[in-house]
């Protein structure tokens, strides 16, 4: 798969039971995208996707960053 943020090669780490996508990217790191946010997220400009991922990283408390609707409003 391609990283939804930087479009570089990435790993799809999503378990079958998760509503969303888990991405493992060597450049952006590992992060999650909430299922209800995915389509809106990938339709953003790259700078907005980067800002949303940064917001998710700042909000995470030791776990994998989760890009959700709140992160999209920041970007």
Shape: globular
Strand/helix succession: EEEHHEH
Question: How many β-strand stretches?
Answer: 4
Helicity level, as a percent range?
25-40%
Alpha-carbon distance between the two ends = 23 Å
Radius of gyration: 11 Å
Low-confidence stretches: none
| Biggest β-sheet strands, sense, barrel | 4 strands, mixed
- Side-by-side strand order of the widest sheet: 1-2-3-4
Q: Indicate how many domains the architecture comprises.
A: 1
Average pLDDT figure: 94
- The helix tally amounts to 3
Structural class: alpha+beta
Strand content: 15-25%
Structure characterization notes:
The chain has 75 residues and is of the alpha+beta class. It has one domain (10-74). It is 33% helix and 23% strand. It has helices at 38-42, 46-59, 69-74; strands spanning 10-12, 20-25, 29-34, 66-67. It has a 4-stranded mixed sheet. A hairpin with a 3-residue loop joins β2 (20-25) and β3 (29-34). The chain is globular and about 30 Å long. The relative contact order is 0.20. The model has no long low-confidence stretch (mean pLDDT 94).
């Amino acid at each position: 798969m391609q990283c939804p943020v930087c479009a570089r090669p990435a790993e799809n780490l999503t378990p079958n039971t998760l509503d969303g996508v888990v991405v493992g990217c060597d450049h952006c790191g590992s992060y999650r995208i909430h299922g209800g946010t995915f389509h809106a997220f990938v339709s953003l400009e790259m700078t907005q996707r980067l800002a949303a991922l940064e917001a998710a990283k700042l909000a995470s408390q030791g776990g994998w960053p989760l890009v959700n609707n709140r992160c999209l409003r920041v970007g």
